[in-house]
Design brief:
With 335 residues, the protein is α+β, with helices and mostly antiparallel strands. The protein has 2 domains: 15-202, 2-Layer Sandwich (Fructose-1,6-Bisphosphatase, Chain A, domain 1); 214-334, 3-Layer(aba) Sandwich (D-Maltodextrin-Binding Protein, domain 2). Helices cover 30% and strands 22% of the residues. Strands 4-3-5-6-7-8-9-10 form an 8-stranded mixed beta sheet, sandwiched between helices. A hairpin with a 6-residue loop joins strand 3 and strand 4 (105-106). Helix 1 (15-23) packs antiparallel against helix 2 (29-52), helix 2 packs antiparallel against helix 3 (74-88) and helix 5 packs across helix 8. It binds 2,5-anhydro-1,6-di-O-phosphono-D-mannitol and magnesium ion (MG). 2,5-anhydro-1,6-di-O-phosphono-D-mannitol binds at residues 70, 99, 120, 123-125, 217, 248-250, 276. GO terms for molecular function: fructose 1,6-bisphosphate 1-phosphatase activity; metal ion binding. Its cofactor is Mg(2+). InterPro entries: FBPase_C_dom, FBPase_class-1, FBPase_N, FBPtase. Residues 212-333 form the Fructose-1-6-bisphosphatase class 1 C-terminal domain.
Length: 335
């Protein structure tokens, strides 16, 4: 008689097993796996807090203001503490950079490991109260200073090209984690019946079809570079204008662009003359992932991954999309 289990099929590839298969034979692979396991626990915790937010009264503003001058939300604080707590106790990290904290966090001496993690613990805070998708995003570097010595800012301020892994979690209609360790991009959905992330989108590859969709906050149009205005105008011309989509949560807009193709733009504008999105924990991990999926991320001049960060909270304008879309944009910018 055949027995069908409701839960995990023994052939299902969990995120944990994926990490073990792909990383254990790499230098520092074991430590990286243990770090990724900790990040998985962080995401499960934040995911649970997001789902409970209404009944636990976690919605709404906390009252404090973070380093970017933004009002912090209760969930922001919980998410940040969860990241710091799990990663600081993983024995795999030495320095942590969070969007929510002014300074780099140094892990206790006896718990220091080989990696630096830069993260936005809860991206899209403005969407918390209306139940639209929010997310967490992270970038992992290997330290340059030898283990056993004091880590320094030089370990943190590395161009994105040096990343060893990057990923994000999307707290949407399902809880999804997308991860790249530099060998393609894979997507895992949380199966709540077994509490595991299961591979549902292996080898994510960007749709390269031109004129798919574009994603930008057009309310800033008047203060964009006129060349960007002209590029966006081309999307609206003809009998079949290109659909515009914008959620206002970077990870959600990025994830849709990765899944469906097209382009995401956050250009300089009067309110954010040097771009709004942060290099270390938003633009770099997204660019790493999109390159791994066959797309491209630039600041209009160079690949985001080649930018040398000067401070931990640097911002940049950013364009992320399929190679053709980015080429089209650059052609407009160079005219
Ligand atoms: P934050 O919630 O981490 O501060 O993120 C900033 C958000 C991004 O998620 C999103 O892409 C952007 O701000 C939207 O900005 P705007 O409202 O200017 O379009
Ligand atoms: Mg945030």
């Amino acid at each position: 008689m055949e027995h069908r289990s409701q839960g995990l099929n023994s052939n299902s590839l969990t995120l944990m097993r994926h990490c073990l298969n792909n990383l254990m034979d790499k230098p520092d692979g074991q430590e990286l796996v243990s770090l990724l396991v900790s990040i998985q626990s962080v995401v499960k915790n934040i995911g649970a807090a997001v789902r409970r937010a209404g009944i636990s009264r976690l919605f709404g503003a906390e009252g404090s203001v973070n380093v970017q001058g933004e009002e912090q939300q209760k969930l922001d604080i919980i998410a940040n503490q969860t990241f710091i707590n799990y990663l600081g106790n993983s024995f795999a990290t030495c320095l942590l950079v969070s969007e929510e904290m002014d300074n780099v966090v140094e892990v206790e001496n006896e718990k220091q490991g080989s990696f630096i993690v830069c993260f936005d613990p809860l991206d899209g805070s403005n969407n918390i109260d209306c139940l639209a998708s929010i997310g967490s995003i992270f970038a992992i570097y290997k330290r340059k200073t030898p283990k056993g010595t004091a880590p320094s800012l030089e370990d943190v301020l590395q161009p994105g090209r040096q990343l060893v892994a990057a990923g994000y979690a999307l707290y949407g209609s399902a809880l999804m984690m997308v991860l790249s360790t530099g060998n393609g991009v894979n997507g895992f959905i949380m199966d709540p019946s077994i509490g595991e992330f299961v591979l549902t989108k292996p080898n994510i590859t960007m749709n390269q079809t031109i004129r798919r969709q574009y994603s930008v906050n057009e309310s800033y149009r008047n203060s964009w570079d006129p060349k960007i205005q002209k590029y966006i105008d081309t999307k609206k011309q003809g009998d079949e204008p290109i659909p515009q989509r914008y959620i206002g949560t970077f990870i959600a807009d990025f994830h849709r662009t990765l899944m469906y193709g097209g382009i995401f733009l956050y250009p300089n504008n009067a309110a954010s003359p040097k771009g709004k999105l942060r290099l270390l924990y938003e633009c770099n991990p997204a660019s790493f992932i999109i390159e791994q999926a066959g797309g491209r991320g630039t600041n209009g001049q160079e690949d985001v991954l080649d930018i040398q960060p000067l401070t931990i909270h640097d911002r940049t304008q950013v364009f992320l999309g399929s190679k053709h879309e980015i080429e089209d944009l650059h052609t407009c910018l160079n005219q």
